[in-house]
Amino acid sequence: MTVLTETVDTTARAIEAGLFTWPAEQPRLIGSRCKACGLVTFPSTSGCSRCTADDTEQYLLATTGELWTWTVQGFRPKSPPYEGPVDFTPYLVGYVALPGEVKVETLIVGVGLDDVKIGMPMELVIVPFHSSVTDDALVTFAFQPVSAARPAVFTTAANPSNTGA
After folding, report:
1. 70: domain range?
2. Strand ranges in 37-149 using DSSP code E only, listed in sequence order
3. What tens digit of pLDDT does each residue of 92-138 get?
């Protein structure tokens, strides 16, 4: 497994607008919450999959959670839509359960295959994304173990309170 150790360019563009707050000192994933039943979703949606209401609001997700499950992406995904490096290196992906909110599918960084464990505390980080299609400086979100050394990866502070509009 390759652990990302690159610095993040704070002028880089988010891989997708509206996915997370960027640039920001403490980035947050942007989800939505149904005003009728309270269901939280990520990414954000305009309608509720639980009660079918069409009245949702932006909801900033917690930055810490617990690794719910994981696997190894062992082969280069089909392109398109994959835009990652042509020289493919396997990487970890999984779901992080954000307490009382939602499970987020995510890239997992800062931990090797021998050390990743279901249930480990995780935190949101912003990491460089190298597109094989464009030369734009891009960033995406990932989660890493809370105890991971983080000198070269931009990390967020844990802040479970929601400050969404």
Report:
1. 1-17+63-154
2. 40-41, 56-60, 64-73, 91-98, 102-108, 121-129, 138-145
3. 999 999 999 999 999 999 999 999 999 999 999 999 988 878 888 89
